[in-house]
Design brief:
By secondary structure, this protein is mostly helical. Helices cover 55% and strands 8% of the residues. The chain has 7 helices and 4 strands. Strands 1-2 form a two-stranded antiparallel ribbon. Strands 3-4 form a two-stranded antiparallel ribbon. It starts with a helix and ends with a helix. The mean pLDDT is 75.
Length: 124
């Protein structure tokens, strides 16, 4: 597995309140990556196995804070797209469009939390 990808997955897992070993990352489902692109929905599904159910709000908050690199209280396109993130331009735009319910071009904590919870409920 690509070293940058592995490093990013470990950071995201830590942000979500857990950790992944190199073995865990090697065991990631193959549909999580496709031709080098990152499937964020599959990642959140996978991470559910590592989270205690009572920690959901805390885990979502930590993930949000990790993605909000400039600590502005919003996740913007440039914070989820770039050389240090596993998302392509198209994937970053899709995340923004999926979560940005007020249409301001950025994701606040409530929008992020609703996206995560909606993805969890859709998979049950």
């Amino acid at each position: 597995m690509d070293e940058d990808f592995s490093s990013q997955m470990k950071k995201m897992a830590l942000a979500m309140g857990t950790s992944l070993s190199d073995k865990d990352i090697d065991l990631l489902p193959t549909d999580m990556t496709h031709h080098g692109s990152f499937n964020y929905i599959k990642f959140f599904e996978y991470m559910q196995k590592f989270q205690a159910s009572g920690q959901q709000e805390s885990v979502i908050r930590k993930a949000f804070q990790t993605l909000d690199k400039d600590k502005s209280g919003f996740i913007k396109w440039n914070e989820i797209n770039g050389p240090t993130t596993p998302l392509t331009d198209e994937e970053a735009e899709a995340v923004i469009q999926a979560a940005d319910t007020d249409g301001d071009g950025r994701i606040d904590f409530e929008e992020f939390s609703e996206l995560i919870k909606k993805e969890k409920m859709a998979k049950k």
